[in-house]
Design a protein that fits this description.
By secondary structure, the chain is mainly α. It has four helices and two strands. The chain has a domain at 42-130: ACP-like (Non-ribosomal Peptide Synthetase Peptidyl Carrier Protein, Chain A).
């Protein structure tokens, strides 16, 4: 019998790298001039809901990136944060546990919902029960 490992058995993985002061999803060669994704004491232009969700994403997927370094407008899949379909499933489970509603894999809106931190946070805020 094959031993299957859960996602929690996997080592933490690195998100796409960026240079000093550059946030994840920011075009190469451009920087925000601050470190840790902070702009004027804020979290990379993130709202409170976006930052809470970014923290959940980093924790649930064991990413080695600061939540504040995630650009709210950057793509979550491919370029940008670099997530894949397995990450989407893990993230949907973490969101359902934290926010009390289900993200279904067969929802035809998923591509729009998971497009960026901003679109995902908007969907979570509109549907959360806790």
């Amino acid at each position: 019998m094959t031993d299957l490992h859960t996602a929690t058995d996997l080592p933490a993985r690195s998100a796409p790298t960026s240079g000093p002061g550059q946030t994840i999803g920011e075009p190469a060669g451009q920087t925000n001039g601050q470190t840790n994704g902070q702009i004027n004491g804020q979290t990379n232009g993130q709202t409170g809901a976006q930052h809470a969700l970014a923290t959940l994403i980093v924790s649930a997927l064991q990413l080695e990136v600061a939540p504040a370094a995630i650009d709210p407008a950057a793509p979550m899949f491919g370029e940008g944060l670099g997530l894949d379909s397995i990450d989407a499933l893990e993230l949907a489970l973490a969101i359902s546990r934290a926010y009390g509603f289900e993200l279904r894999s067969d929802d035809e809106r998923n591509q729009r919902i998971f497009a960026s931190l901003r679109t995902l946070a908007d969907h979570v805020e509109a549907n959360r029960t806790r």
